[in-house]
Structure prediction request, 154 residues.
Amino acid sequence: MTGTVEKKLAELGIVLAEPTAPVANYVPFVRTANLLMVSGQICLADGKLVAKGQLGASVSVEDGQKAARACAVNILAQVKAALGDLDKVLRVVRLGGFVNSAAGFSDGPKVMNGASDLMVAAFGERGKHARTTVGVSALPLDAPIEVEGMFEVS
Prediction:
């Protein structure tokens, strides 16, 4: 049965796919007590990157925001795999973003809004979170962004 959060996602045109398995020596998520930490997710959709390259070079802020949103969708797919039901999320606690940035690119926070905005759209007030955005010189598969998340869960 689809819960409230998944219905909201469906209204936004988002259907959660089966999450991708890790490609290295880590797990996709860890739950301890009432916290769920989701490993960094890149902007894969249907097996392809939503965008590729560096922000401030070959990727625009708008395309970076779309990529960040895709990362957030992948995070939610991992949360659903961990909990079985997105309605068990009591609060989005934190998002951390790593933005593949060309030298001098300083609009990483604008790019991360693509992920943050989706969390607020999906969870309402419970989706407002603390956040860190860090510019980096490279990411796996030349992804423009990678996002990780922490959730308070029941």
